[in-house]
Design goal:
Order of helices and strands: HHEEEHEEHEHEHEHHEHEHHHEEE
CATH architecture of the domain at 137-294: 3-Layer(aba) Sandwich
Helix content: 40-55%
Strand order of the largest sheet: 1-2-3-5-4
Structural class: alpha/beta
Number of strands: 13
CATH topology of the domain at 137-294: Rossmann fold
Radius of gyration: 65 Å
CATH superfamily of the domain at 137-294: Hypothetical protein af1403, domain 2
Number of helices: 12
Largest sheet: 5 strands, mixed, barrel
Mean pLDDT: 84
Distance between the termini: 196 Å
CATH class of the domain at 137-294: Alpha Beta
Low-confidence stretches: none
């Protein structure tokens, strides 16, 4: 296209206003950075929530985000290694560890990064008081809701067994907290029985796993208590135990919950609602051991008191028995003396009575002897009468009659035959003689 044609093509289009420069992309980037340095020459403080924490080599990158009614706003932040080395003592002093979800107030310088076309903040400072204050406010809000719901003191009202030997443990088995806890229990010499549920105690899934483990162990009626432990860490790591879900799981647990969360300065919300909050896992184990030891000491004290009372009662009883024995001895001796007197009297009475009885018996015997001497003369008439009766019986005896040649005829059934007319020809009769019998058959009868 020729120049005249080009001019005609755009003759009605407005031209650039006079005095407005045209930048290249690099020039514009430099201009933006220059304007940022002039406007924020001393740096800028920005508050928000860390999201997308990402460590690449010695540097860290994240977004500082804020949720508002108008939507979400975010700013890219670069936390380079030199700045990290500079802020490390501050973070360690306040036991803070930067991570997702942490609300911070940071200082830095704005920078427009030309290769990506993004505005970012090069972090060089942090206000730990802001973060700690935010964390405290969040804890206070959780506690307020728990109090309003009547759950703040709920677990402390659960009765703890006098010998909590069966314990459910929520912990990471690879941690020093688990090793310290179990070592303290083993050192006691008591027969503790542990049922442990493995959980992560920090990170994205920690709250969910810990809450679920507390609910699971709380359903076991064969346990005496539940223990939640972890080792030391930064305040931001321990902020996991400020979560309302964990606090609710502890408050509603049917078993008393002990916490030993490894920090001695701060108290988490989990500590606030637990039945017993101890400073460390070792202290947590020591509290259980102390409870069992106290019960054993109480039993031994009670047994000693029972033994002393029993000994006193036995001594009193022995004294009473001795008194009774002495009284019985005196009474027995007196009774024996009286019995001897009565026996002597009765012996004398028996001797006198026996002599009289013997005399009477002797007189009676002499009288009977004289009467027996007169018996033969008195029996002679009776003997003669008895002889006459015997002779009559002899004469009437059928055997005597048979001896004179007579016989007795009987039918086969044994009936005596008194009339020949009662017999018929062919009947059998048995004839008895003085000596022997004979069986005959009737041939003819004559009436």
């Amino acid at each position: 296209m020729s120049q005249p044609s080009f001019d005609l093509e755009f003759e009605n289009e407005p031209l650039d206003e006079a005095g407005l420069p045209t930048f290249s992309v690099r020039e514009l980037a430099d201009a933006i950075n220059g304007a940022l340095r002039r406007s924020f020459s001393e740096g800028v403080w920005v508050r928000g929530e860390i999201q997308g924490w990402n460590v690449r080599g010695p540097h860290a990158y994240f977004k500082l985000a804020e949720e508002t009614e108008d939507g979400k706003a975010s700013l890219n932040v670069q936390f380079f290694a030199p700045a990290q080395m500079k802020l490390k003592p501050v973070l360690m002093k306040h036991r803070l560890r930067l991570a997702d979800g942490l609300k911070v107030r940071i200082f830095g310088h704005l920078d427009y990064f030309a290769p990506s076309g993004q505005l970012g903040l090069k972090m060089s400072g942090i206000d730990p008081r802001f973060t700690l204050g935010e964390m405290a406010m969040q804890r206070d809000e959780v506690v307020r809701r728990l109090v309003s719901a009547g759950m703040y003191d709920r677990n402390r009202q659960v009765v703890l067994a006098p010998t909590p030997l069966r314990v459910g443990v929520v912990a990471s088995s690879s941690s020093a907290a688990w090793a310290d806890f179990t070592h303290e229990l083993e050192r006691s010499g008591f027969a503790f029985v542990l049922r442990q549920i493995e959980v992560r105690v920090q990170g994205e899934w920690a709250v969910q796993e810990i809450s679920a483990a507390l609910r699971t162990l709380g359903k076991h009626r064969d346990l005496d208590a539940v223990v939640l432990i972890r080792g030391g860490g930064s305040r931001t790591e321990l902020a996991t135990f400020d979560d309302e879900a964990i606090a609710t799981a502890i408050a509603t647990c049917a078993l008393p919950v002990f916490t030993g969360l490894g920090h001695e300065i701060d108290r988490s919300v989990a500590d606030e609602v637990a039945h017993s909050a101890l400073k460390t896992p070792t202290a947590c184990a020591a509290a259980l051991v102390e409870r069992v030891q106290a019960f054993r000491n109480s039993c031994e004290h009670a047994w000693t008191a029972i033994a002393h009372r029993a000994q006193r009662a036995i001594a009193v009883a022995e004294s009473d028995v001795g008194e009774v024995a002495r009284s019985i001895r005196h009474q027995v001796a007196a009774s024996v003396d009286r019995a001897d007197d009565r026996l002597a009297q009765r012996a004398r009475s028996v001797r006198v009575g026996a002599s009289q009885v013997v005399q009477r018996a002797d007189a009676h015997l002499r009288s009977a002897t004289a009467a027996v001497g007169r018996v033969p003369s008195r029996l002679e008439p009776e003997l003669r009468h008895l002889g006459a009766v015997a002779e009559r019986l002899r004469l009437l005896d059928p055997a005597t009659t048979l001896a004179r040649g007579y016989s007795i005829a009987r039918t086969a059934s044994g009936t005596a035959v008194l009339d020949a007319g009662a017999l018929h020809a062919g009947d059998l009769i048995v004839t008895t003689f003085a000596k022997g019998t004979a069986t005959t058959r009737v041939e003819e009868t004559t009436p």
